[in-house]
Amino acid sequence: MYDRTVSSLRHVLIALGDPLVELQVAPQGLEVDVREVVIVDPDDPPDVSAGDLALVIGARGRAALPLIRAAGRAKAAAVAVKESSQALEQAATDAGVALLEVRPEVRWGHLESLAKGVLTTTTDDGEVLGDLFALAQTIATLTGGIVSIEDTASRVLAYSRSSDEVDELRRLSILGRQGPEPYLKMLREWGVYNLLRSGEEVVRIDERPELGIRRRIAVGIHAGQQPLGTIWVQEGDQPLTEQAERALLGAARVTAPHLIQQRNQPTSRFRENLLAALLTGRMDAATVAGQIGADPGKPAAVVVFAVRGAEGDRSEHELRRAEMTGLISVHAAAYRRSALVSESGGRTYVLLPDLAPNAQLLNLTREIVTTARRHLHTAVQAAVGSTVSTLDDARISRQEAERVLDAMARDLDAEVATLADVRSQVLVSEILALLQDNPRIRDPRIDALDPELAKSLLAYLDALGDVRAAADKLHVHPNTLRYRLKRIDLDLDDPLVRLIAQLQLRMR
After folding, report:
1. The domain containing residue 470 runs over which residues?
2. pLDDT number for residue 377
């Protein structure tokens, strides 16, 4: 999962810049911390916390005054409104909160997305990924141009600030509107979009003075063969640098993990946090049920999924995992409107509440796994926890599913399983894990066996002492197997020796 860290108001304003917002007052200065971007609706009680950038939607003029005062009491960092006034500026000053005026043509959803993108993020292991705005500025420095980063739907995710004159295409793109259609049509006719989607080639686009469009270079961003977006570099008042194309190619590879990270974040982070809080005991079932419209007294179950196979390119693997989580979310929501999906530690957890007592989840889980294999070309394993009587016991279902999935990862080829299906295999797998972690409770004579003798002994023990059956499995003559067994310094007539040997050999 990803957690937002702190950016200063100055950093946010520099990143967003004049095309979107203008600072009106900042009574606490520009170094105040911005921790999160929140939407404030005048029809709802203001839910604002310290360090928030509050976007006031649907309240203009004096109607925004109570929200500004509430943000000040909560020690928010800033409030953004569509129409500023002297009264609002005075209220913000008195409340000790910065006031931003949003350009009339800017869509709130677009501003929210860009503002959230400004905030630096880190991964679970503490690796700082940085933000796309900072990356766009770095690309601008290396290329000498004016940069924008877009997704595959041509939505602007981040852009560099610039003192140079920007052309009409860039201006309209930043404001969230489509560029000039004649120019976009020419790009399609020239095959520019096809080139950007098909590989890493840097594409050159000539200027079109009659449309107010300057020269550009662009490159596609990919994870393996999957397109993620595009980096566009507009030439400003000065020519692009000599190394611009080489820098742009490297930038595309660096940007890919950032875009995968954004895809990997669910549309509603709030719902993901609800599931994590429930499964770790940080939130009670009644509270979670109230948020998702479920009955906490009805049965529930947890299913856990994991992508298997060689990871290969890290970006490509992360993209597959993100797509897998999206696919699971769609299937789970279709099955139960109140389903919750969360990704953690490389696994995807699904909570299915409001189940019938005899709910059959295996078919749903198999359908998801089959769809993933067919459409995402990804090997997936899934473990279905038992259906528990109430939402309070969801953690029991989760723990059971994790036990099964752990065993499947170690030595089970099944794609979908429950504890009832593979209980013996799960128990043996967990015993073997204990043996692996505790060398002192192993017989050193068994550890010392060479691979041929170890394989022969395990086949003999699995065949319950039937030499001919074991020899057939090993494709050797029975006398050959008898000779090998005589070389082993163990009393194979002792059932306890056989038990320990069989466990240790399975561990190997």
Report:
1. 442-507
2. 78
